[in-house]
Design a protein that fits this description.
alpha+beta; Rossmann fold; Elongation Factor Tu (Ef-tu), domain 3; Alpha-Beta Plaits; 5 domains; 6-stranded mixed sheet; 13 helices; 31 strands; globular
């Protein structure tokens, strides 16, 4: 019966116990036996278990006291906020998990806003109450002030031990409303996730809002206009469970004959080809990457393998965009666009682990809008695409809207950090002993080391969340770097003119630490439009060629040293430098 369906998701900041709570729910509902139970069972990738985070969301159906409970375990990182928002729209309720040791964090706030916008019933949960030294009263007050609920409505649990989880299950049944059923209107289903299976094609995770979908139905993706066939439909426990149909109110899967997830993206709507709905479900947007990095194989023999691997990954991850590029130093490679630095790390790890590639990854950057004096506007993904500066009218860079949640005693230092990144502080509000700082800042300045510096300043208690804002025109310049008088395009960056000298000095100083000494002196230089603004030299190895000379006239030694000097000069002209891979991520390590 439809009245016995409960669709809900778990939302939380990273490491607040979301996956552990999902484990307990599966165990208590008998969805998985204790014999088959292991930690983070819904996190199927090795990377997820190693990093202790959820990367790929996982839906699962449970049965409890005659009710059908459909859980969506969502990622907790800001890079995947769009997927989280679509998962929330597939549900009627959300469990908001707050770590009793850490309290409300930035991503907690972001997820609450998403849940409120989706008009969900929010069940607040305080997790990790089994740990000693926690202030449950203070954490309870934080949640009360955030949600406006009563202290008695907050369920206190330990997802690790299972304490309080049965009470939570009863609250799910009693508080989350059943889905509204509509079988009369044309079929519409929301795609909240999709992936590519090597043997079966693209599999869609969907929530049916209207109508029903049967096996062998011809389907239409409203946004992309792609047409296909429903080869199989059903629901998910720990595996795909086929059934004849999925109907309004249910969460399930559809096996299609699509060849790429780009034909059926997250947030798009599915309808039936023979009786199509005219309007898609609201909220769909084509998610665009905004962080770019060059991926090069350490050996050019692996270039074709890299191309095939990226193409295969992009079948499952429609957020990835890529184009081929060629570097005079690194050879042939691929420039890939990501949703953020975590997304980039995940893709890099998967390429190396699953496809056996040895990769060199260049400094991550964002894109820029270039307006030329001719009136032409171009979007560039890398600094080396910026050519003649005399033809440029203006450069626009991406900015973000950021939020930091921190204990209030660190507010002053955080404001200094924001200012150092050319950020503009907008507002400060307080939730008990926690401060919420809103600000705007250039994305390029936030990408590299902002999060690490924030954690250092706040002793690990500060958290950060952001969303992409618009482009802003700034006084930006391109800084090029030369190693042994050779320009290395892969190291070029775009920075604000006021920061250029400082960044140039820091970078060549760091390069001096990374590049090994040679048998000849190596110059490291930073330049703007051919004008050098910083320099360091790596001194040559000194071999004492006169050590075998004993006694005699001093001219004998001078003659041998002059011969050595000529040899070093000749070597400098013809010798090459073998650059270590760490050179190309020097911006990440510059602080």
């Amino acid at each position: 019966m439809e009245s016995n369906i409960r669709n809900f998701c778990i939302i939380a900041h990273i490491d607040h116990g979301k996956s552990t709570l999902a484990d307990r729910l599966l165990e208590l509902t008998g969805t998985i036996s204790k014999r088959d139970m292991r930690n983070q069972i819904l996190d199927k990738m090795d990377l997820e278990r190693e990093k202790g985070i959820t990367i790929k969301l996982a839906p699962v159906r449970m049965q409890y006291k005659g009710y059908q409970l459909n859980l969506i375990d969502t990622p907790g990182h800001v890079d995947f906020s769009y997927e989280v928002s679509k998962s929330l729209e597939a549900c009627e309720g959300a469990i908001l998990v707050v770590d009793a040791t850490q309290g409300i964090q930035a991503q907690t706030l972001a997820n609450v806003y998403l849940a409120i916008n989706a008009d969900l019933k929010i069940i607040p949960v305080l997790n990790k109450i089994d740990l000693s030294g926690i202030d449950i009263k203070a954490r309870t007050e934080q949640i009360v002030n955030l949600l406006g609920c009563k202290a008695g409505e907050i369920i206190k649990i330990s997802a690790k031990t299972g304490e309080g989880v049965e009470k939570l299950l009863d609250c799910l049944i009693n508080q989350i409303p059943p889905p509204k059923i509509d079988l009369k209107n044309p079929t519409r289903a929301l795609i909240f996730d999709s992936y590519y299976d090597d043997y079966r094609g693209v599999i869609l995770y969907v929530r049916l809002f209207e109508g029903k979908i049967l096996k062998n139905d011809q389907i239409l993706i409203i946004g992309s206009k792609a047409q296909g066939i429903c080869l199989e439909t059903g629901f998910l426990t720990m595996e795909l469970n086929p059934q004849a149909e999925i109907s309004s109110g249910e969460i399930g899967y559809i096996v299609t004959n699509f060849k790429s997830t780009s034909e059926a993206k997250v947030g798009d709507s599915v309808t039936l080809l023979n009786n199509p709905a005219t309007n898609p479900l609201s909220g769909f947007k084509d998610v665009q990457p905004f962080v770019y990095a060059g991926f090069f194989p350490s050996s050019n023999e692996q270039f074709n393998s890299l191309k095939k691997a990226i193409n295969k990954l992009s079948l499952s991850d429609s957020a990835i965009s890529y184009s081929l590029e060629n570097s005079p130093i690194l050879g042939f490679g691929v420039r890939i666009g990501f949703l953020g630095l975590l997304h980039m790390d995940i893709v890099k790890e998967r390429l190396e682990r699953e496809y056996g590639l040895d990769l060199i990854v260049t400094n991550p950057s964002t894109d820029y809008l270039i307006r030329y004096t001719s009136g032409e506007v171009v979007n560039i993904k890398s600094a080396y695409e910026l050519k003649d500066s005399t033809l440029i009218s203006e450069i626009g860079e991406r900015w973000i809207k950021g939020e930091i949640v921190t204990p209030k005693e660190y507010v002053g230092e955080i404001l200094n950090l924001i200012i150092s990144k050319r950020g503009l502080q907008k507002n400060i509000s307080y939730i008990n002993d926690q401060a919420l700082i809103s600000f705007n800042a250039p994305l390029a300045n936030i990408l590299i080391d902002f999060y690490d510096q924030l954690k250092s300043i706040t002793a690990g208690f500060g958290s950060f969340n952001y969303e992409i804002d618009d482009y802003r025109v700034e006084n930006l310049v391109k800084v090029d770097f030369y190693i042994a008088n050779q320009k290395i395009d892969s190291l070029s960056i775009i920075v604000h003119k006021n920061e250029a000298s400082k960044v140039g000095r820091e970078t060549v100083s760091k390069l001096k630490e990374i590049i090994p000494r040679q048998n000849f002196k190596v110059s490291l230089q930073a330049a703007i439009d051919g004008k050098f603004i910083a320099r360091e030299d790596i001194s040559a190895y000194r071999k004492d060629v006169t050590s075998g000379l004993y006694g005699g006239d001093v001219s004998r030694k001078k003659k041998v040293l002059a011969k050595q000097k000529k040899g070093k000069a000749r070597l400098k002209n013809i010798g090459g430098i073998d650059l270590p891979p760490s050179v190309f991520t020097v911006m990440i390590k510059r602080n």
